[in-house]
Amino acid sequence: MQTNYLKKYVISSYILVWALIILVAGPASLIFHAPPVVMWIVRNLISWSPTYLLLIGWKKFRPGETRMEFVKRCFSGRIKPILLLFSFGLIFGISIVSLGILSLIENRSIASYIEWGSVSLPLSVFLAFTSGPTGEELGWRGYMREEFHQKYDFLKASVCQGLVWCFWHALLWVVDSDFTDWRAVPYILSNIVVITSLTVLMNIVLEQHNNLLYSVLMHFGFNIVYVFLDAGILFFVILTVIYPIVTLMALVIRNKLTVRRG
Fold it and tell me: By residue range, what is the domain housing residue 125?
């Protein structure tokens, strides 16, 4: 019977991250009352769990290849500075446009939704970059993307990746969210739609330029907004509408380019 290495990796990644949240982040917050910057560092260490798991347990998930061969392939694509900036700007821009729409609806300035917090700006940016953007991509858009694309066509493989990535955060929706009443429903739906759409957008770029630096910057463009954002559930509702529209447009362009090359 053929071993399902992808299934093993997905299940293991869920078990590991939930165990770390319960056994490490939980006590750090509830028992030791760690200050915000310490909790941020703890969350960053936990966000690297897909990479820890992949590299430490490599022979369990990809026995026919060395770690170095895999890592080199994940960063083998040509780097185009303009495309790097565009990749970041597209995802960051979607959030800014959504925030602009929210400000018009609620008749508030965009600046009023920004909360700088107690951590300095340079440290906030550094911690945001060294969390999910650098910690998760080797697992999600590196290993998992390759495995899913061996099984399914582009769109189905991307949606499956997005759903796995999305529900990997599920425990955080309960323990680390401001939306614990009726707003939890649109918040969870927004996570599902937005993260899946974001995965499709990442994969469109990686299909043309197989270098994880692109998805790292797209991930960073997505995360950095939430470091300073103080907005209600309507913001996430707006994202839920805009992301599928942008993703559909990107898919249409991708399909037209694919037909021309074919």
Answer: 5-261
